[in-house]
Amino acid sequence: MSARRRHAVLVDDERLARFELRTLLEEAHAEQVHVVGEAASVSDAARLVHATDADVVFLDIQLAGETGMDLLPLLGGGVDVVFVTAYDEYTLRAFEVNAVDYLLKPVAPERLAVTVSRLAAAQPPAPTRETLTYEDRLFLRLGQERAFVRVRDIVVIEAEGDGSTLRLAPHLARKPSTKSLREWEQRLPDRQFVRIHRSTIVNLEYVERLEPWSHASQRVYLRGLPEPMTMSRRFGARLRDRFG
Predict the structure, then answer these.
(1) Domains of the chain, first to last
(2) Total H helices, total E strands in the chain
(3) Alpha-carbon distance 145 to 141, whole Å?
(4) In a 3-state reduction of DSSP, which class is residue 189?
(5) Which of the 8 DSSP states describes residue 227?
(6) Rounded to 5 degrees, what are φ and ψ at 237?
(7) Would the pLDDT of 143 be above 90?
(8) Could you give the CA distance from residue 51 to residue 130 in angstroms, rounded to a whole number?
(9) DSSP element (H, E) containing 174
(10) Is pLDDT of 29 > 90?
């Protein structure tokens, strides 16, 4: 039994970019993907997806005056997303999003073929487990919002039940994540991120000073946070070696 033909909406504020992607799909992948419409804004895209019952969206991240990410909460659970982005100055990684794939502009035909095969399988690629770099950006689900986050802007991560809470520069508001502290520790670059407690990971770039506290533990003061973090004796030597 052959794979079902996918119905796609192309979302990009540049008409030429939509035309080029449509041409690539129609010339090489017409049997796998049928382009049912195009949109230049989030609101138009949402209406079009629902009107056509599209099941995949090729979504530009940067739209005129808005972000393509705002479309994600408006899509039904049965709609796959392929991000299309000109962000080629850094490696873009999917850490926590149900994206089938990412395409860099200008879209290469051989790379698009990989995306189409993934769509045909109706299964996103296995998530990467490679270590992140300090300059990476992550696409994260933070509670009810989704956002791109620079790894370097993660100030501290604290365990919260089975998940975690992030504090991000510059505002340092608490942001919930479903990722556990163990998952974060496995992915974050260990030159900059150190576990100071069984429930806390800190970014060394934000550590201002250490102060002795009780039972051989210490307090760790982070730039911008009025309340210090506790560093247990178990993790103390590791941070002191790195910090001093």
Answers:
(1) 6-121 (3.40.50.2300), 137-243 (2.40.50.1020)
(2) 5, 18
(3) 6
(4) coil
(5) S
(6) -60, -40
(7) no
(8) 40
(9) strand 174-177
(10) yes
> Both ends of the chain: CA-CA distance in Å?
63
DSSP string, 22-85: HHHHHHH-TTTEEEEEEESSHHHHHHHHHHHT-SEEEEESEETTEEGGGGGGGS-TT-EEEEEE
- Model confidence at 184: pLDDT above 70: yes
Per-residue pLDDT, averaged over 43-64, amounts to 93
Q: How far is CA 39 from the centre of its chain?
A: 23
DSSP string, 90-114: S-EEESS--EEEEEESSPPHHHHHH
> For residue 196, what are the CA distances in angstroms to 63, 87, 132, 170, 233?
40, 34, 20, 22, 9
pTM flag (> 0.85):
no
Share of the chain above pLDDT 70, in %: 88
Could you give the CA distance from residue 168 to residue 161 in angstroms, rounded to a whole number?
Answer: 19
Distance of alpha carbon 240 from alpha carbon 98, whole angstroms: 39
Tokens of 181: 């502290």
Report whether pLDDT(169) > 60: yes
Q: How many CB atoms lie within 10 A of CB 110?
A: 8
Q: Which two tokens stand for residue 206?
A: 């934000």
- Residue 176: strand pairing partners: 165
Q: Residue 105 CB: number of other CB atoms within 10 A?
A: 18
pLDDT for 69: 81
Q: Which phi and psi angles does 50 have, rounded to 5°?
A: -70, -35
